[in-house]
């Protein structure tokens, strides 16, 4: 079992930055690919970014390319999402997930999830 906890969300003005963190316990996160997803009320959880277990590979949703950066520190069991140039449409609850798959851009591929952290971007 892997327990994930997200933090770092909050209220920020458009153009601002936030850094989300995802910390794991229970097992070493180095065994898993980790993704960030976001969800609006009444909508499905949408892919944002993913990083392979070794951090050699990353992939982003088109709308966040060049603005968001995913990284990880396996020694500390942490994964981060640096979000810059935030837009009101980035407002959502952000979740980190862990999967044993090599890659994952759909939520159904993920076995473990955190509780989410709210990001609100004001215009």
Would you kindly provide a brief summary of this structure?
0% of the residues lie in helices and 50% in strands.
Secondary-structure map:
Elements: E1 3-7, E2 10-13, E3 18-25, E4 33-39, E5 46-51, E6 58-60, E7 68-73, E8 78-83, E9 92-99, E10 112-113, E11 117-122
Parallel strand pairs: 2-11
Antiparallel strand pairs: 1-3, 3-8, 4-5, 4-9, 5-6, 7-8, 9-10, 9-11
Report on this structure:
With 123 residues, the chain is mostly beta strands. It has strands spanning 3-7, 10-13, 18-25, 33-39, 46-51, 58-60, 68-73, 78-83, 92-99, 112-113, 117-122.
In total, how many beta strands?
A: 11
Helix % is under 10%
Which blocks of ≥5 consecutive residues have pLDDT under 50?
none
Strand content: over 45%
Largest sheet: 7 strands, mixed
Approximate shape? globular
What class, by secondary structure content? mainly beta
Number of helices: 0
Report how far apart the termini are.
40 Å
Q: What is the overall pLDDT average?
A: 95
Q: What Rg do the Cα atoms give?
A: 13 Å
What order do the SSEs take from the amino end to the carboxyl end, as H and E?
A: EEEEEEEEEEE
